[in-house]
Hints:
By secondary structure, the protein is α/β, with parallel strands linked by helices. It has helices at 2-42, 47-71, 82-85, 102-109, 119-122, 128-134, 142-154, 179-187, 229-232, 239-261; strands at 75-80, 92-95, 113-117, 137-138, 158-161, 191-199, 217-227. It has a single domain (2-261), classed as Glycerol-3-phosphate (1)-acyltransferase (3-Layer(aba) Sandwich), CATH 3.40.1130. It is globular. The model has no long low-confidence stretch (mean pLDDT 90).
Amino acid sequence: MLNWIKNKLDRLWRVAATGFCFAFFFLGGLFQSIAIFPLLRLGAGTAWEKSARVRAAQRATFRFFVAMMEAFGLIRVRIHNLDRLRQTGGTIVIANHPTLIDVVILLAWLPRANCVVKGELWRSRFLGGVMRAAGFINNESGDQLLRGCREVLDHNEAVLIFPEGSRTVPGEPLHFKRGTAQLAVRTNAPITTVFITCEPATLIKGQPWYRIPPRRADINLYVEEVLTPEALIECYDDKPAAARLLTRYLQNYYEQGLRRYG
């Protein structure tokens, strides 16, 4: 009986702590976009430099958010080969996408990075201002996406993108979209690969935030290697064909890698 009560109280605490963390995240994003980011953009510098200041502030906020979730006993994050993550300038950083907070964790530790985001987030009441102030890359227009990624890479920053386009559906195979490969072959950018595991699963697609696992979730990020698409694909000059082949290669690469880490 005592164990049942203890487990029930622990679960209630973690549900409340999870709700608090996400309220902090969304309301904090709204506050920053109204009160903090405009001040950061008032200083001297180019539009790019102003957006870079905002991204630096976001990086600090994301680190605090992850540390808060760890302090509450909700998650434990371990990044393997962190030094490789610090050397991602000028590359496209890709990862599988098991949880809602993957992007927050990666942007917290990528030293200089931009991110490809969905158009719906761009229009979000709480996060839209954050996306625009940071100069994140909207994926609604193919031409705009390509221009944005080229500008980021030319500034020796990383472009973070999830090839699945959304969180992985538990129990279903990976399904990489062609957009990531299209960017790689059209920008000639190297690809830094990151594998993410989460045990037990939490904040997964199709599940409400309050349906938390019975214990703390261990989230591991394995920063693997840098791939050169031109060296992997024979018909590289044929960009549409190269994108198809690279998409297939990356999906197989991640399927094998996740079996190894899983």
